[in-house]
Automatic annotation (TrEMBL):
This is Short-subunit dehydrogenase. CDD domains: 17beta-HSD-like_SDR_c. Belongs to the short-chain dehydrogenases/reductases (SDR) family. InterPro entries: KR_dom, NAD(P)-bd_dom_sf, Sc_DH/Rdtase_CS, SDR_fam, SDR_oxidoreductase. Residues 2-174 form the Ketoreductase domain.
Amino acid sequence: MSRILITGASRGIGRGLAEELSRRGHDVVATARDVSALEGVPAELRVQLDVTDPASVNRAFAEAGPVDVLISNAGATVRAPLETVPLTEVARLFELNTFGALRVAQAVLPQMRERGSGRLVFVSSVQGRIAMPLIGPYSASKWALEAIAEGLAIETRHFGVDVQVFQPGAVSSGGSERASVFLDEDDPYFPLLGQVGGFRTTPVTVEEFATVVADALEADHVPFRVPVGEAATAQLRARKLAPEDAPFVAAPLDW
Ligand SMILES: NC(=O)c1ccc[n+]([C@@H]2O[C@H](COP(=O)([O-])OP(=O)(O)OC[C@H]3O[C@@H](n4cnc5c(N)ncnc54)[C@H](OP(=O)(O)O)[C@@H]3O)[C@@H](O)[C@H]2O)c1
């Protein structure tokens, strides 16, 4: 049994992870910006944690006590062309998806390093390796997250801390439907929107995703990158095999 702190556990993937890990007998610390949103989430402890707020992060770890595994899940997405996406939105996305994840890792690492054990888990995406049209700011935040995770993996293994990155394609959590949209019908990029669906892989369910993560946490082998779902695995394999002298376009595109 591990003590596992999850960010963004109020709904979607984070909530599914709390449910699956609690069901397996782990000691879950469920966190969210608004602790009342955690009502009904199975957990040993429910704690307020906003990944963009250093004081909130520090308070949460003081309250949580020793943590074996951090699952950095909180995140959001934006649908907009890179030409016109407001830079304030790009900054907001990085503050949440990228710097927020690093902030919580920084908060938990001292105790893991001193103990000589621990695991940092990052919920990335196929978009941590693949750029998708009209979701470019999100892809950028996840590419940066993967660089941070890989850097952390290299730096912290010396202290007995493992790092894992999970890369789902689409997950039927409702998360992508909550994207902030900066694209209207008059936009010159609007026709591209009709083709973006081809990039979206067949969704895995939240339960399927949570099972993959929970199985990985209980396994002896700790692979660094873990694609989740057949479609995501195929997309990532295609990316790996693609020549680097052209942008990788993950689906047929008439543009
Ligand atoms: N859905 C997909 O298709 C998909 C695919 C690949 C990867 N992912 C990744 O999976 C993760 C979860 O996505 P999801 O689909 O479950 O999205 P979701 O249903 O919208 O859930 C996002 C979670 O993040 C929390 N959150 C937002 N801002 C926060 C902040 N500042 N501090 C702490 N928590 C915050 C939300 O809580 P409150 O708003 O209640 O505070 C919510 O619990 C994200 O990292 C996402 O990029 C999703």
